[in-house]
Amino acid sequence: MPCIENKHLEKIIEIAVAINRLAKCFSEMLEDRDACLDGFKRASRIIGNELGDPQEIIGDLERFIRSRHLYESSYISSDPVLLKARLSSLYRSFGVIEKGEMADHISVELEFLSLLFVKIFISSIMNDDNGCIESLKAAHIMIIDHLSVWIASFKERIGHSKASELLEILDYLLLRSRDLLR
To answer: Of 172, 179, 169, which Cα lies nearest the Cα of 140?
Structure first.
């Protein structure tokens, strides 16, 4: 039995690209804005309806980028050092060493999750069950133990705003991913 059903592979890679592009929305670098806008378009196709104005959402999100509320340890960790060490260890086990951003920055976590989805896709088509299962386990850890938990806390902190729409989109993509990866 394959690690993931073949009928779900195309959706997983589609979600991987959307999440990777949406991760750029949390970057302080202006050159990432085009990638972010592309992520909104891709997410809109996956969700199946029109999303709010991405420019307004990004504008509202920028105040949270400046306030530095983009780290998981700001929301849920009683031991930020341990949290970051665990994430860094997980990243290294897949050959990833975070640069610039901290291990628990939302963009790093989202980009790592998209990498795991690509690894699931590739290992599935290469019939590498061990590689697929390892990537699948790590994806579940990232979704269930990290992103789903603290994105909910992040949404609570920022309240109803344009920026919360991006978090709703990410919540939907994470939920959809979890369903596909069962």
So the answer is: 179
CB neighbours of residue 107 within 10 Å: 21
pLDDT digits (tens, 9 = 90+) for 36-63: 989 999 999 999 877 778 888 888 887 7
Q: Other CB atoms closer than 10 Å to residue 61's CB: what's the count?
A: 23
The answer to whether the predicted template modeling score (pTM) of the entire model surpasses 0.90 is yes
Residue-level pLDDT at 68: 63
Q: For residue range 145-177, list pLDDT tens digits in order.
A: 999 988 888 888 888 888 888 889 999 999 999
* Three-state secondary structure string covering the chain: CCCCCHHHHHHHHHHHHHHHHHHHHHCCCHHHHHHHHHHHHHHHHHHCCCCCCHHHHHHHHHHHHHHCCCEHHHCCCCCHHHHHHHHHHHHHHCCCCCCCCCCCEHHHHHHHHHHHHHHHHHHHHCCCHHHHHHHHHHHHHHHHHHHHHHHHHHHHHHCCCHHHHHHHHHHHHHHHHHHHCC
